[in-house]
């Protein structure tokens, strides 16, 4: 038997510590394995079977150095793309549909193909492969506005831009209704010589207004007719011609006209009733660059995505490199935070606001209370005599009845009565179906109350019965009245079109909000514009009793986007030498931040709208035409920004299609990008960023800074005066963000302000958002105490070991 040695005391301590650490490690690993096992059980791919289902993938490639002679304009580019399929495809080739779906050459280096997961993995090993992802499906973001925006005949921006003459607006949407009177080419010049597009309609259907129309929906070989209405509405909002006497159900009567009435329209059909496929969107953007458009308008989007995984962002970057301005809708997922689509800084991200027109339908209760609402259907023969008023939502047995969902009112006696219905009820309960249900069971009329999130934002719809949509607050008061009496009654007073709402523009409830998820250091949305109850052309009559050319009134950021696309066309016509970034800057720095009542712009709850709802503010086209200073950007300026976001070299090349290595580029923080706004995450230490402005106003001019510091911080700007002696002269200034650190608050919160450069009539305003991370004194002392205790424990252990 060998000698037994005794473990020294200090070694036993070490072993005990190691033993405890080992137990912690074992428990941690056991939990990790358990979690992983749960994930495996939940995963449909864990059954050991090969997943050979074919999906359409967007495949991004870059031309390798070994293929130097291959260019994006080469005739054999498609053959090179095809070689990826030839080497990767291992399954039977008996598929009826071709594997190659699309090839791209302008906005994307790559192609779309039907592949299995295994084939994509095989492709990853090939030279030139960058990445691939399954294509996404994006939803659509679905008269008086020129006057509302200050555009008038023979004066101002319309006169100075010649109504957008010579500019081509490309719209990616649901197609177009050719022959609509809004698309008449009376007074239109022929398209500019640079136009290279084509028209898939029969001869004579396209003209000098509608100069191009193509269908990019894969497998759909029909002409790009608009079977939904969305595309016709957005196109004519951007650039429809003058049409007198336009109305919907006799409401909103006046002259319908788009933002840029002499601009040309090029239509790219990429959406149907099922949505918009990414591969089709990229194909249309690819063609639009070739065709020679000046502005691209996309009223669609699929939520927040990293730029290198967002086909729209990648395509828009390439368009921007070619000098094309890209305007996109922000999305209809408001009023919740961080719900934006189309967040890239080279895209104008457009939120939605109200206008000062209403299609009034006032609810009058039996107790004399009156509540203004809206309805597009305004029957002239509706008797103003009060009728019994009922609310089916008081029944606990059938909760769907409160929403007047299809079939939900069958057991209720509503014949000859006015029915109070609630908005919402789920994705399968549509607004217009509520009136149909009331009509089906014999109801005389409907009051539709907003959901809480919708607040005071009211949409005008063509309901199947006489109706009024009222605010959430009004709806609750109507409910209280019903509960207060045994015989509630009401009527609806239809007052037609009214103007002059001084609270306009206001941010509507559905407009998606920031901050951006992908890049919080870029303030989004950029701008808001008219998107509520907008009248524009429609393929078919909404009112079957009216034989006039059809129009419709609808709402969405889909409607605000083409307003800004048309305004961008006006600015491009007025300033043909301006870059897309300069146009965006002009729009943002001249935006209005007050309503017609000269009070801060409000939101759907009648509260002051925050910066993540309004962006820079509400568009002011005339001011944007003469902004004084602009924050300009060249395409290469985005590379340090992308590298600063920690994208890989291949991801940056995928976006920019340039030979980029981030190791050879000095990355910059997001807030350092020369953007017309500031979004800063501020901790204990001060931060500083610079901006460069270009003088596009008067040659000899002096600008003085005006600062409104976000509460809780100090802003310092140097120099405080910018002096210019010539047009296009540049100047740089530095902004320091200095935390106060008063120790009274703890945690993170946002604070907003602005920086404004003022010279005579010029006011160049940049909104400022700061996320402040503050620490209370007690929190700080607690951390110090913790560190002291840890250090003390370390000293004790060292003492035991010595």
Briefly, what is this?
The chain is of the alpha/beta class.
Structure, explained:
The chain has 802 residues and is an alpha/beta fold. The chain folds into four domains: 55-135, Alpha-Beta Plaits (2-Layer Sandwich); 165-355 and 505-608, 3-Layer(aba) Sandwich (Rossmann fold); 358-499, Glucose Oxidase, domain 1; 635-777, Immunoglobulin-like, CATH 2.60.40. It contains 17 helices and 34 strands. The protein starts with 8 loop residues before the first helix and ends with a helix.
List keywords for this structure.
4 domains, 17 helices, Rossmann fold, 802 residues, seven-stranded parallel β-sheet, Alpha-Beta Plaits, Glucose Oxidase, domain 1, seven-stranded mixed β-sheet
Give the helix/strand class: alpha/beta
- Tally of discrete structural domains: 4
Main β-sheet, in a few words?
7 strands, parallel
Low-confidence regions: 1-51, 778-782
From the N-terminal CA to the C-terminal CA, the straight-line distance is 32 Å
So, CATH architecture of the largest domain? 3-Layer(aba) Sandwich
What is the oligomeric state here?
Answer: single chain
The gross shape turns out to be: globular
- Approximately what portion of the residues adopt beta-strand conformation? 25-35%
| CATH T-level fold name of the largest domain | Rossmann fold
Helical run tally: 17
Residue share in helix: 10-25%
Task: Please tell me how large the radius of gyration is.
Answer: 30 Å
Secondary structure: number of strands = 34
Q: Which class of the largest domain in CATH terms?
A: Alpha Beta
Please, what is the average pLDDT? 87
What is the CATH H-level superfamily of the largest domain? Peptidase S8/S53 domain
Main sheet: strand order = 7-10-6-13-14-15-23
GO molecular function: serine-type endopeptidase activity
Domain Peptidase S8/S53: 164-595
Subcellular location: Secreted, Extracellular space, Apoplast
Main location: secreted
């Amino acid at each position: 038997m060998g000698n037994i040695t005794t473990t020294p005391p200090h070694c036993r301590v070490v072993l005990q510590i190691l033993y405890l650490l080992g137990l912690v490690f074992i428990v941690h690993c056991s939990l990790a394995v358990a979690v992983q096992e749960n994930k495996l059980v939940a995963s449909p791919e864990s059954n050991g079977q090969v997943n050979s289902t074919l999906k359409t993938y967007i495949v991004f490639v870059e031309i390798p150095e070994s293929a130097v002679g291959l260019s994006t304009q080469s005739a054999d580019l498609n053959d090179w793309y095809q070689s990826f399929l030839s080497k990767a495809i291992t399954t039977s080739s008996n598929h009826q549909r071709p594997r190659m779906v699309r090839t791209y050459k302008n906005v994307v280096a790559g192609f779309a193909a039907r592949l299995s997961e295994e084939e994509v993995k095989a492709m990853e090993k090939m030279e030139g492969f960058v990445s691939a992802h399954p294509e996404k499906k994006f939803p659509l973001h679905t008269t008086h506005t020129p006057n509302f925006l200050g555009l008038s005949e023979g004066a101002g921006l319309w006169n100075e831009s010649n109504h957008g003459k010579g500019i081509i607006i490309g719209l990616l949407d649901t197609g177009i209704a050719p022959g609509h009177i809004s698309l008449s080419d009376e007074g239109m010049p022929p398209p500019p010589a640079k136009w290279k597009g084509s028209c898939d309609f029969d001869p004579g259907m396209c003209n000098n207004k509608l100069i191009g129309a193509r269908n990019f929906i894969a497998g759909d070989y029909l002409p790009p007719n608009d079977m939904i209405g969305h595309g016709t509405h957005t196109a004519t909002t951007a650039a429809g011609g003058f049409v007198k006497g336009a109305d919907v159900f006799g409401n909103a009567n006046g002259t319908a006209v788009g933002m840029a009435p002499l601009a040309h329209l090029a239509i790219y059909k990429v959406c149907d009733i099922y949505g918009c496929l990414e591969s089709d969107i990229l194909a249309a953007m690819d063609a639009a660059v070739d065709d020679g458009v000046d502005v691209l308008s996309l009223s669609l989007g699929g939520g927040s995505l990293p730029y290198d995984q967002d086909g729209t962002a990648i395509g828009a970057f390439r368009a921007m490199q070619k000098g094309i301005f890209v305007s996109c809708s922000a999305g209809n997922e408001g009023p919740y935070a961080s719900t934006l689509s189309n967040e890239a800084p080279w895209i104008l991200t457009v939120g939605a606001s109200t206008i000062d027109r209403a299609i009034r339908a006032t609810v009058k209760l039996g107790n004399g209370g009156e509540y203004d609402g809206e309805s597009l259907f305004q029957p002239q023969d509706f008797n103003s005599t009060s009728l019994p008023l009922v609310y089916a939502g008081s029944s606990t047995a059938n909760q769907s009845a409160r929403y007047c969902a299809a079939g939900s009112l069958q057991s209720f006696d509503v014949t000859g009565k006015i029915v109070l219905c609630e908005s919402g009820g789920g994705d399968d309960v549509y607004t217009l179906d509520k009136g149909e249900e009331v009509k089906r069971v014999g109801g005389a009329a409907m009051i539709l109350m907003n959901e809480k999130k919708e607040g005071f934002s009211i949409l005008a719809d063509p309901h199947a019965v006489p109706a009024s949509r009222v605010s959430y607050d009004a709806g609750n008061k109507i409910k209280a009245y019903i509960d207060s009496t045994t015989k509630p009654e009401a009527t609806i007073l239809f007052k037609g079109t009214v103007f002059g709402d001084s609270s306009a523009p206001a941010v509507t409830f559905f407009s998606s909000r920031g901050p951006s998820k992908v890049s919080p250091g870029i303030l989004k949305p950029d701008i808001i514009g008219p998107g509520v109850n907008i009248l524009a052309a429609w393929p078919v009559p909404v009112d079957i009793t009216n034989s006039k050319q059809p129009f419709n009134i609808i709402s969405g950021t889909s409607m605000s986007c083409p307003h800004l696309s048309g305004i961008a066309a006006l600015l491009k016509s007025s300033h043909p030498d301006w870059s897309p970034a300069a146009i965006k800057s002009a729009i943002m720095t001249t935006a209005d931040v007050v309503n017609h009542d000269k009070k801060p712009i409000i939101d759907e709850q009648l509260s002051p709208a925050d910066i993540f709802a309004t962006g820079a503010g509400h568009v002011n086209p005339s001011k944007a035409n003469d902004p004084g200073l602009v924050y300009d950007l060249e395409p290469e300026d985005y590379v340090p920004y992308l590298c600063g976001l920690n994208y890989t070299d291949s991801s940056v090349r995928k976006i920019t299609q340039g030979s980029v290595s981030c190791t050879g580029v000095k990355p910059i923080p997001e807030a350092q990008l020369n953007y017309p706004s500031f979004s800063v995450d501020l901790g204990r230490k001060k931060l500083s960023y610079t901006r460069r402005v270009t003088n596009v106003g008067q040659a000899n001019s002096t600008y003085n800074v005006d600062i409104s510091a976000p509460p809780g911080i100090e802003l310092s700007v140097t120099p405080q005066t910018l002096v210019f002696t010539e047009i296009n002269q540049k100047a740089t200034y530095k902004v320091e963000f200095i935390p106060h650190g008063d120790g009274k608050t703890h945690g993170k919160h946002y604070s907003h302000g602005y920086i404004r450069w003022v010279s005579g009539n010029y006011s160049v305003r940049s909104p400022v958002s700061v996320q402040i991370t503050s620490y209370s004194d007690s929190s700080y002392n607690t951390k110090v105490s913790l560190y002291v205790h840890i250090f003390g424990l370390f000293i004790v252990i060292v003492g035991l070991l010595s």
